[in-house]
Amino acid sequence: MLRIVDGRNGEPVELEPGRRVPLRVLAHIGAAGATTALRVLLLADVLARTAETYGGQVLVASVGPADPALDAAAAALGIRPAAARGDSAREAEEALAGPARAHVAPAGTETGGPRLDVGPVHPDEVTAGPAVRLALLRLDRRAPAELTPRVLDAADTGLRQWRGAVARWAESPSKPMCAEYVEHLQAALTADLDTASYLTTLDRLAAETALPDGSRFETFAQADRVLALELTSEVGGMRS
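RESULT FIELD:
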């Protein structure tokens, strides 16, 4: 079961991950600046990917005017296209053929259901890419994000290091994932979509040299189903 904290009242809410019927999610981008809207779409994407790891299905619809530039930036961040779009929440729900169970939106947005709050992002324009995705996921989703050149350089360096490490680990015999780390990773996402804790757990795992490299590889490869950072792109010496 996925649990989120409803931004409207601070109360915990349980979300069925869409095993029986799709979990419908609205991503409210209409009133947000460009990079804040990108962050909204990113969190909706992570929610969908998390549900899929539990055998669920999520249908995401964006709420706001069509914006080809935002769509292109979202694609550069590895965000999958929304299943539908509407100028209003009602139009988006009609396009999804059912009511939304969760909303991803800037704090304070009026929604008709549980809301995952997303903090503002500055500056309002950035060159979208995997480093931006990683930099945003390293923060509490409610916290303001400052995507300074230093922050993005650090994210880019960290991403390169992880990809290189995963490629090295892939050369070792495969081993089962470490149950302790898997438990912490699952807990981070199912408890309010805590991507910051998720990544901190992976930082610890990367530094855990006592574990077999094959185990670390399998765990990172599994984690990337949610992160979508192409962590295995250098395996075999080839970039995807």
